[in-house]
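# step 3/5: fold
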Amino acid sequence: MSIYSKCILMLHAARQPIAPVIILFAFAHASEAYSQTPPAAPAVSDAQYGELVNENTVGILGGPSSGAYMRIIEDMADVIDDGEKLRILPIVGKGGPQNLLDLLYLKGVDLALVHANALSAFKDEPRFRNLDKRVCYVSQLYADQLHVMTDRAGPIEQLRGKTVAYHDAASRQAGERLLGALGIKPKNSIQMDMIEAARKMKAGEVQAIVRVAAKPMPAIDELLAANDKLRLLKVPYSNALAEDFRPAKFAKGDYPALMGGVASIDTVGVGVVLAAFNWAAGSERYKRVAKLIDAFFDKFPGVALSRGSQWRDVDLQAQLPGWQRCPAAQVALDGLKKVRQTVDETTVRSRIKQVAPDDPAEQERLFRQFLEWLRTQKAEGGQPR
């Protein structure tokens, strides 16, 4: 349905005091859609252009090029990038603890995706000194799941005194934190690609494989070709795990061949955090990151509604105990809360349902778009009327 048609439907449906607000919102977007292209900006010198590009580009560190971290950053860039006014530069990284080190020391890295438990694990290490002051967080995002796999039935306690293989550094860091919290001490811990570990399991050299990844993790067919007896182990959640993990589940549809015929298996999730270097207030790098953060909160509905399901699970207000939220992120979050407090949400949603009946996703998109517009009006000193 065109924006113009939606405007007409809104006019037709308007019978409540809030209706003029929605009508203004609708026509504002309609006029924007049909407005003429603005005149081209005056030409700038090469030196000026170079300064403009650099001052409006923010580097975000992800993981391997084909991994979930890079997809998350690309999602952000697709929606948030605003030509030369703001540009996200996705940076391929190694993930795991290395991302945290690179955020602290690698030039050009302003923000990074890191696991929440890595922040806890390394905060007292020498190279991470004063980590809670050097790093702030923008938001918690989705959670990766901890996959513990073996070809032997039994509880996770069976790994005591056995050889455990960790797929990569992030898996090792999380897996060792998990087993340590559960009081399970393996005989040997090795880092090895999960496919190779699955082959060695058949030879009795490895008894379990641990991998942290967003479900469904890749290369399942290769994994089962290496060892078709593999099954996921249950990881029971307890208060002892609360600092580093959150409850999670695998459903039969996630891994039909790894479930052993059961409908669901408990595991734990490892929170993924969008973290930033805590630049000094007022510095150029601080302003650059603050600009990105403002755009992230302003355009988050567009990311959440147009991208993968992982984004729809994000709670922007979720806190990360023991860590400070970036000042610009807290300001943006407070702004969103104020907007929600001034809007009769029930009435607005009722009117939007008339515009997009039988389409909950479109209804939610329009509602979030309305909140964005309302917030913009207030930021510019205008009043909805």
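# step 4/5: annotate
The longest strand covers residues 135-150.
# step 5/5: archive (pending)
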